[in-house]
Design goal:
It is built from no helices and 11 strands. By secondary structure, the protein is mainly beta. The strands form 2 sheets. Strands 2, 4, 5, 6, 9, 10 and 11 form a 7-stranded mixed beta sheet that branches. Strands 1-3-8-7 form a 4-stranded antiparallel beta sheet, with no helix packed on it. It is globular, with a radius of gyration of 14 Å.
Length: about 120
Protein backbone atom coordinates (compact mmCIF):
# COMPACT_ATOMS: atom_id res chain seq x y z
CA UNK A 1 0.00 0.00 0.00
CA UNK A 2 1.41 3.33 -1.03
CA UNK A 3 0.36 6.96 -1.22
CA UNK A 4 2.72 9.22 -3.13
CA UNK A 5 2.16 12.96 -2.75
CA UNK A 6 3.52 15.66 -5.02
CA UNK A 7 2.96 19.30 -5.91
CA UNK A 8 4.06 21.12 -2.79
CA UNK A 9 6.34 24.12 -2.85
CA UNK A 10 6.78 27.79 -2.11
CA UNK A 11 4.07 30.19 -3.28
CA UNK A 12 3.23 33.83 -2.61
CA UNK A 13 0.07 34.81 -0.75
CA UNK A 14 -2.86 34.77 -3.13
CA UNK A 15 -1.23 32.15 -5.32
CA UNK A 16 -2.31 28.62 -6.18
CA UNK A 17 -0.92 25.11 -5.93
CA UNK A 18 -2.22 21.69 -6.88
CA UNK A 19 -1.35 18.68 -4.73
CA UNK A 20 -1.62 15.17 -6.11
CA UNK A 21 -1.75 11.84 -4.34
CA UNK A 22 -1.15 8.69 -6.37
CA UNK A 23 -2.40 5.52 -4.70
CA UNK A 24 -1.38 1.91 -5.25
CA UNK A 25 -1.68 -1.46 -3.57
CA UNK A 26 -5.20 -1.14 -2.19
CA UNK A 27 -8.76 -0.47 -3.35
CA UNK A 28 -8.76 3.27 -4.01
CA UNK A 29 -12.36 3.39 -5.26
CA UNK A 30 -13.68 1.77 -2.07
CA UNK A 31 -11.65 3.97 0.23
CA UNK A 32 -12.42 7.26 1.94
CA UNK A 33 -9.69 9.65 0.78
CA UNK A 34 -8.59 12.77 2.60
CA UNK A 35 -5.98 15.48 2.81
CA UNK A 36 -4.67 16.52 6.22
CA UNK A 37 -2.12 19.14 7.15
CA UNK A 38 0.16 19.81 10.07
CA UNK A 39 1.75 23.16 10.79
CA UNK A 40 4.77 23.49 13.12
CA UNK A 41 3.73 23.16 16.73
CA UNK A 42 0.15 22.27 15.85
CA UNK A 43 -1.86 19.08 15.64
CA UNK A 44 -2.62 17.44 12.33
CA UNK A 45 -5.98 18.62 11.02
CA UNK A 46 -8.41 17.47 8.37
CA UNK A 47 -8.47 19.72 5.30
CA UNK A 48 -10.78 17.93 2.87
CA UNK A 49 -12.44 14.53 2.64
CA UNK A 50 -13.97 12.45 -0.14
CA UNK A 51 -16.29 9.65 0.92
CA UNK A 52 -16.66 8.36 -2.63
CA UNK A 53 -16.91 9.70 -6.16
CA UNK A 54 -20.67 10.25 -5.91
CA UNK A 55 -20.58 12.27 -2.69
CA UNK A 56 -19.68 15.95 -2.52
CA UNK A 57 -16.40 16.40 -0.65
CA UNK A 58 -16.35 18.09 2.74
CA UNK A 59 -13.92 20.83 3.75
CA UNK A 60 -12.54 22.48 6.85
CA UNK A 61 -14.13 25.88 7.39
CA UNK A 62 -10.73 27.53 6.98
CA UNK A 63 -10.40 26.35 3.36
CA UNK A 64 -14.00 26.40 2.12
CA UNK A 65 -14.33 28.32 -1.12
CA UNK A 66 -10.56 28.23 -1.73
CA UNK A 67 -9.70 24.52 -1.95
CA UNK A 68 -11.23 21.93 -4.25
CA UNK A 69 -10.88 18.19 -3.80
CA UNK A 70 -11.22 15.76 -6.67
CA UNK A 71 -10.73 12.03 -7.05
CA UNK A 72 -10.22 9.92 -10.15
CA UNK A 73 -11.13 6.30 -9.49
CA UNK A 74 -9.77 5.22 -12.87
CA UNK A 75 -6.33 6.68 -12.21
CA UNK A 76 -6.35 6.11 -8.42
CA UNK A 77 -5.49 9.74 -7.88
CA UNK A 78 -6.62 12.34 -5.36
CA UNK A 79 -6.08 16.00 -6.20
CA UNK A 80 -6.31 19.12 -4.05
CA UNK A 81 -6.50 22.43 -5.90
CA UNK A 82 -5.57 25.24 -3.54
CA UNK A 83 -6.28 28.83 -4.53
CA UNK A 84 -5.99 32.21 -2.79
CA UNK A 85 -3.38 30.71 -0.49
CA UNK A 86 -2.66 32.40 2.82
CA UNK A 87 0.39 32.26 5.10
CA UNK A 88 -1.68 30.26 7.58
CA UNK A 89 -1.99 27.50 4.96
CA UNK A 90 1.71 26.79 5.44
CA UNK A 91 2.04 23.18 6.59
CA UNK A 92 3.04 19.69 5.61
CA UNK A 93 0.12 18.19 3.70
CA UNK A 94 -0.63 14.49 3.99
CA UNK A 95 -2.80 12.19 1.93
CA UNK A 96 -4.77 9.58 3.86
CA UNK A 97 -6.72 6.53 2.76
CA UNK A 98 -9.25 4.62 4.88
CA UNK A 99 -9.87 1.26 3.25
CA UNK A 100 -13.01 -0.49 4.54
CA UNK A 101 -12.44 -3.96 5.94
CA UNK A 102 -16.07 -4.87 6.69
CA UNK A 103 -16.72 -5.75 10.29
CA UNK A 104 -13.05 -5.20 11.09
CA UNK A 105 -13.31 -1.47 10.56
CA UNK A 106 -10.80 0.27 8.29
CA UNK A 107 -7.14 0.08 7.44
CA UNK A 108 -5.57 3.53 7.33
CA UNK A 109 -2.66 4.51 5.09
CA UNK A 110 -0.70 7.76 5.08
CA UNK A 111 1.58 9.36 2.57
CA UNK A 112 4.96 10.82 3.46
CA UNK A 113 3.77 14.41 3.24
CA UNK A 114 4.55 17.36 1.01
CA UNK A 115 5.56 20.80 2.24
CA UNK A 116 3.50 23.85 1.30
CA UNK A 117 4.94 27.23 2.22
CA UNK A 118 3.01 30.44 1.61
CA UNK A 119 5.25 33.45 1.99
CA UNK A 120 6.21 36.65 0.23
Amino acid sequence: EQLLESGGGLVQPGGSLTLSCEASGFSFRRSVMSWYRQAPGKERELVARSQDVQTTPTYADSVKGRFTLARDNDKDTLTLLMTNLKPEDTAVYYCKAEEPMGRFGTLDYWGQGTQVTVSS
